Amino acid sequence: MRSSSPTSSCDSYGSAVSTAPSTPPPELAGSYFLVLHDASQAFLDGLLAKASSDRVLLCKGAGAVKPVLEEAAGVLGDMAVVDDARWERVVSNDNGSEAIYYKTKDVIATIDKKPSIALDTVQCDSKLAPHATMLNLFCEAGLRSIIGLPSRSANTTTTLYILERPPLTFPPFSSTPRSAPNPIANPYTLPSLAEFTRAWAIWDLITLGMIPSELLHSKPIDLRHKPLFYIGHLPTFANILLSRVIGEREVGPRHYLTTFERGIDPSVDDPERCHSHSEVPERDEDWPVIGDVLAYRDEVREKVIKRIFAEVESGERALTRRLARTMVMVHEHDGFHIETLLYMLIQRAGTGMLPPPGFAPPPWPALAAQWDAIPAPTTPTVTLGPATITMGHDDQEPDDLLPALEHDVGAHEFGWDNESPARAVHVGAFRVEWRPVTNGEFLAFWQGPGKDVVDMPASWAQTEDGEVRVRTLYGPVPMAHAKHWPVLTAYDDLAKYAAHKGGRIPTEPELRLFLDAYQVGYEEGANTGFRHWHPLPATAGLQEIDGGRGSNGGVWEWTATALDAHPGFVGTGIFPGYSSDFFDGKHQVVLGASYATIPRLGDRRTVRNFYQHNYPYPWVGARVAYDV
């Protein structure tokens, strides 16, 4: 816990201690900070130490705070929250004005003494703000909302946020800093070193904090490599591509360049059929040991990536569009594989893999009660089209080498080869459901009309007594807790569900039109960028709230469009075969973003991901469209 600032004073008058030296006074497991004013980012940032069990209880609105504190005590499982004797008043400073907050005492008195605080008299007096505004404030302060608790009292209109300091947060795009390579604060140009470092932090948290050493050689999914491969793959991808673009020899052991070069995406129907990929050792003992792989990872980060940033900053190396594009590829490749590894690990969550360290386990019952109260859409569907939309953006890789564009970096929006060029596409009239198919809806289909027609989703788990649970990175949870989340399963099975309802899966242009009109982005509160480590219920379709705009819950979405070349498509020469290797009629385009998608990928509207139509593991759902 951080100490109070030098301008703070404490009104607790001291605490009496036990007279029995053999019985030390009990200590709290963590401290609570109750904030009742319109706190600034800097004020909130200064409250909690890193890697602590302390919590901020931030109240927004006007009214008595005791009712929401009582609810918070139940969520936290700690009645200290409503014990007057455990609180003390602190006078501090926020943006030059006096700010009063309350904190629990580090040591509790063990003899009777009249409490200095009476929680019944404490009032919240701050302005209510939209939920998305609060989420942005929290992430910029390095905090995360575990849950927001609205008051259930008729006399108060307040929300109490329970906040933690997680290992990292993703700031909103509006706080993208200006720099020499990025003078206009463009979020889609060359990533900053801070962005690389943030992605490394989440990757290291997953690979070092969630995978026990004895499971490094396990294969949670038969159609993908073991976790150890991916720990070596990310630095190898960076090592090969960046060394090539700067014209220097790769660092590290030479055999790593072939062992860890490229992952696999074999045919689901015939796993022996696979695109070009690395040949990996068959025996566990023939793989490099984890310590050597981590040393190699660090060498690539220091001697290749950080060195390039330092040379560009000093002027020793010119920043060209080709170099910037390669850096973008390396960073976004990391982002895609963060999600790949997680959807693999979730298959072993609760049976070996560990939950994300430093992030509090969700209070499932309290969250589920809130999710049950989310209103249904005003109408089941919305009608869109006819319309002409722009698909993609202009970002042809060969243009990097044109003299007029060679150094045009800061204002440019980079992407992958299948995102370019911009093209006009006509979309006919259609109806589409406001929200993706939920676990509860698909469960009823799977147990009823779809029995023996569709498979049980790989995102579910069945207990020995037949109970269906939903997988999370904290272990499987009861269906009652996750019934409103989008179901994550293969395209084929969701297409059968849609057909049963008299509909179909939307095409890519149709889904793009819907998402452009009604899907919110990260800064508007979307469930991306690890705000949560699980999906949420979708919220779109309430006409009285922002015209129906909302979140899809934090999942990618299937489209009926197969990945293929389009007019003007030019395949990448930096990473040959990135898209074209999968122009096989088996891979469907997916749009959107999951809760584990970095915001840079989640918010760039031109991003197109793709998976095999019968691949059940990725975090992809779907909504139902209808002809009109």
From TrEMBL:
<feature type="domain" description="Sulfatase-modifying factor enzyme-like">
    <location>
        <begin position="410"/>
        <end position="511"/>
    </location>
</feature>
<dbReference type="InterPro" id="IPR051128">
    <property type="entry name" value="EgtD_Methyltrsf_superfamily"/>
</dbReference>
<feature type="domain" description="Sulfatase-modifying factor enzyme-like">
    <location>
        <begin position="525"/>
        <end position="625"/>
    </location>
</feature>
<feature type="region of interest" description="Disordered">
    <location>
        <begin position="1"/>
        <end position="24"/>
    </location>
</feature>
<keyword id="KW-0430">Lectin</keyword>
<dbReference type="InterPro" id="IPR016187">
    <property type="entry name" value="CTDL_fold"/>
</dbReference>
<dbReference type="InterPro" id="IPR042095">
    <property type="entry name" value="SUMF_sf"/>
</dbReference>
<dbReference type="GO" id="GO:0030246">
    <property type="term" value="F:carbohydrate binding"/>
</dbReference>
<feature type="compositionally biased region" description="Polar residues">
    <location>
        <begin position="1"/>
        <end position="12"/>
    </location>
</feature>
<dbReference type="Pfam" id="PF03781">
    <property type="entry name" value="FGE-sulfatase"/>
</dbReference>
<protein>
    <submittedName>
        <fullName>C-type lectin protein</fullName>
    </submittedName>
</protein>
<dbReference type="InterPro" id="IPR005532">
    <property type="entry name" value="SUMF_dom"/>
</dbReference>
